[in-house]
Input
Amino acid sequence: MLLLAALTLTGWATCLVAARWTGSWTGGAAAGIVAAFNAHMLTPAAPICSALRVEFLPLALAALDTLPAT
Output
């Protein structure tokens, strides 16, 4: 159940960030699918690997994107 939640949140967060950057929801959905369901995430060792927890990385990128450039 946690694996499914992690994959879903990763795809959703990446979709939001990519749609914001590109201006296209189709491009955002494609980026979310690629980020959530890539070969690294779907390997048999992925549930025990700490690298699986990347769902907050796109949200951190979105937060950094809102900071004003100085």
Notes: The mean pLDDT is 81. The radius of gyration is 13 Å.
